[in-house]
Amino acid sequence: MNPYLAVAALIFLIGVMFLLPLVPAWIELRSKSDAVPLNVVQQNAGEIRHFANGFRSYIGALEPIMQHCVNSGGMDAGALSNGEDYVVLGRTDEIQMRALAEQDAVHPVLIMAAVDVVIPTDAKFSKDIYAAGQFQSGERGNFRAILGELNVHLGKANSVLRWVHSVGEFTADLGCRLYGRISSDLLIRLHADCNFMRMNAPRIEIGAAEAEPGSITPANSQAPTLLRFIHDGDFEVHAGEIVASNMVIRGTLHIHSGARVCGSVKVLKDVLIDEGVAVEGSLIGGRRMRIGPHCTIHGPVIAEHELVIDGGTRCGTEECPTTVSAPHIEVEEGVVVFGTLWAREHGHVAARA
Predict the structure, then answer these.
(1) 245-270 pLDDT, tens per residue?
(2) Domain layout of the chain by residue ranges
(3) Gyration radius (Cα) of the chain, Å
């Protein structure tokens, strides 16, 4: 065989092998048969109450049984269509709940309480619990998930593995571990040494809330738009200074006590905010962020690495809830967040210094 033909054939074969994987992309570029957006199911869509809503629908078929148990003061047991065992309680007492907790180790059941629920100390439940009345746990409890139609109150050192939703107020005492989603239609209150991840409520109080600061009238209320201030490198806003613009800082930002930013702030590196600072827009930091005591942040607060918030600070308002988010968050007692507080990896409540 002619050696030149052999070389040409080899080069042609290598070229075909190189181009073959690109053929589907070339065909799609020419025909655009897959240009329609993907049909994404929006059932969850980041809604923090997704599991609670699904659980409420899941147990909807048991409502007649619950009503019967309430009227008779008795209990009923059975299995749902998928085979999951349940027990419906028309009344509760400590002996009954302790017996269910001891049974959980060998035969866990979904618990439906049509009345108030009081959980004894050191109880463990590995199935979801529904409480049509008040839910109160003792110390060192361990729960998978809780749905309460009224208030939910966890005693000291309780743990929740998945989620809690309270139609009323949710309170977690000292040292609770909240590993999943916590939501309330009214108020969430966490005390010192609690761990958390994602929480949402009209008002989230960390420890005992302080008196509300006076409302701040935006300095730019007469201006439809704000100018943008861009600075390369580190920057400081002096004490008591008013900055009537949006800020983009390509370094580290330090805002001193009593200063006020009338727009939003975006920082490439660290952010340090001293006491009594007001930011009327969003506050975005590329690395670590520390917000001092008695500050007011009206817009979203996002840090890419770590966020520390000192006591007395307010994030968002009742009228305009916001989102506070970072992989690692430490909040001191006295902080109030209106909306969502989301520690994507770990959140901790520090005792007031």
Answers:
(1) 999 999 999 999 999 999 999 999 99
(2) 51-185, 227-350
(3) 28
